[in-house]
Amino acid sequence: MASVIVYDINKNQVSERELADGVFNDVVRGYLIHDMVRYQLAARRQGTADTKTRSEVSGGGKKPYKQKGTGNARQGCIRAPHYVGGGAAFGPSPRDYTFKLNRKVKKAALRSALSVRFKEERLTVLNAIELEKISTKGFVEVLKRFDIDKALVVVDGVNTNLELSARNLPNVKVLRAEGVNVYDVMRYPNLIVTEGAVSQLEGALAS
Predict the structure, then answer these.
(1) Residues of the chain with CATH 3.40.1370.10
(2) What pLDDT is stored for residue 207 in this prediction?
(3) CA distance 162 to 159
(4) What is the number of other CB atoms lying within 10 angstroms of the CB of residue 85?
(5) Measured between alpha carbons, how far is 187 from 49 in angstroms, rounded to an integer?
(6) What gap in Å lies between CA 112 and CA 53, rounded to an integer?
(7) Whole-number Å distance between alpha carbons of 56 and 54
(8) Which of 162, 157, 159 is nearest to 134 (CA)?
(9) What is the mean pLDDT of the chain?
(10) Whose C-alpha in 7, 86, 176, 207 is 20 to 30 A from the C-alpha of 164?
């Protein structure tokens, strides 16, 4: 089994932990990661863009002028797309961009994403992240000890001091273990996970 060193927030080695190969050292399937990122981004799209067709714009259905004898091109309706104020041709209309992915695919994609970070040696495991008070500066100092400036931090439960300390950092995001997702794992180049969160992820993703 794969193993990692477990640190405290002062970067002192506390212990060594074995990781489940099926979760953190799985075969990396890039196509699954790609599908899952597309799935998440598609779900975020509102799909509310809309334009009026010729049947929806104001204006009568009356013929602007007679068919022949004026010297102009024949016209049937001022609501046609080539008229100013006419309806849009092939414009967007409200739609749902979401698509379906099987639960097994979602789990496999997350296992691949976590495995990417482990194999790149960008996975840091801490025994806990307990800050004495809410302090962005204090949390930045913790990150500097590990030479990290951009990271996804995964904790195993409510951690108010940490969540409030990190919320003003544009390159850091704190998630609880149940909220870990492929998009955020791949978006941030470093992954910091508490030991408790490792256990939760292994329990949820074990195949």
Answers:
(1) 2-43+98-205
(2) 66
(3) 6
(4) 10
(5) 27
(6) 45
(7) 5
(8) 162
(9) 95
(10) 7
Answer for the pair 7, 106: CB distance below 8 angstroms, yes or no.
no
Q: Of how many residues is the chain composed?
A: 207
10 Å CB burial of residue 206 (0-12, 13-18, 19+) is: exposed
Tokens 């953190």 found at: 24
Q: Dig out the tokens for 111 from the structure.
A: 């296992």
Q: Select from 138, 161, 123, 128 the least CA-distant residue to 8.
A: 128
Q: What is the mean pLDDT of residues 85-101?
A: 95
Q: What is the CA radius of gyration of the chain?
A: 27
**Over 80: is that where the pLDDT of 185 sits?**
yes
The whole-model pTM stands at 0.86
Is the pLDDT confidence value at 61 over 90?
no
Cα–Cα dist 88/79, whole Å: 9
- Could you give the C-alpha distances from 66 to 37, 76, 84, 119, in angstroms and in order? 56, 9, 20, 75
Identify the CATH homologous superfamily for domain 2-43+98-205: Ribosomal protein L4/L1 (3.40.1370.10)
**The pLDDT value given to residue 62:** 87
Q: Is 69 left (phi over 0), alpha (psi -120 to 50) or beta?
A: left
Q: Which two tokens stand for residue 171?
A: 């390159």
Structure tokens at 148: 């990290």
d(CA 116, CA 146): 19
